[in-house]
Amino acid sequence: MIKKTLAITLLILTIISCDKIDELTKFDIDYTTNFTIQATTLLGTPFDIVTPETTTNSESEFENNNTNSSLVESVKLTTLRLDLQTPASGDFDFLNDIFIYITADGLPEQLIASKVGIPENGARSLTLDIENVELEEYIKKDSYRLRTETTTDQTIESDHEIEIYTKFKVDAEILGV
After folding, report:
1. What beta strand segments (E) does the chain contain?
2. How many CA within 13 A on the CB side of residue 129?
3. Rounded to whole angstroms, how far apart are CA atoms 128 and 99?
4. Residues with Cβ < 8 Å from 157, sequence gap 6 or more?
5. 3-state secondary structure of 97
6. CA–CA dist 49, 18 (Å, integer)
7. DSSP state of 157
8. For residue range 50-99, what is the model confidence (pLDDT) as tens digits?
């Protein structure tokens, strides 16, 4: 009986230890980029805006977390938030829908986040719904670009500068773990 109890206890401790070690192999990478939605009178017509390239610095990010690109197993987007920078009196009430796509050299464009039927509640920050897609190859590149496809349901009289904050969860082998 004691041997069975000891064996079960060791099995449980092994499982718990593996879960804790697995968590040590995961880390986040954050990026921000800005884009501007120019003043417009177009309503209900989708239009695209391409952001400037975002430099990933992925190799240094991986090194800072004791790994390298060859040991990365998965990269998934966990957060994409839009924060209105200007105008000070602005909000996201003018947006009806937004879709955000990622692209990088040699890789196809991929939908990563969206929000449909955005409520008119005076918000200056908007968290989008994340697509569950693998983004490892995009983050391993030197840079990527985001394309936003937006539909407005109100005219906007001044340019709106928006910051896009993204957080990616990286799962990698660390020191061979």
Report:
1. 26-37, 47-50, 54-55, 72-86, 95-104, 107-116, 125-127, 129-130, 143-152, 160-172
2. 8
3. 9
4. 39
5. strand
6. 44
7. S
8. 788 888 888 888 888 888 888 899 999 999 999 999 999 999 998 899 99
Distance between CA atoms of residues 5 and 83, nearest Å = 55
Q: Give the start-to-end residue ranges of the domains of the chain.
A: 28-172
Query: What pTM was computed for the model?
Result: 0.81
Look at 62 and 45; give whichever has higher pLDDT.
62
* Cβ burial, residue 17 (10 Å; 0-12/13-18/19+): exposed
Mean pLDDT of the 144-167 span: 91
28-172: in CATH 2.60.40: no
Residues in Cβ contact with 58 at an 8 Å cutoff, skipping those fewer than 6 apart:
29, 69, 139, 140, 141, 142
Instruction: Give the gyration radius of the chain's Cα atoms.
Output: 21
Cα–Cα distance between 83 and 33 in angstroms, integer? 11
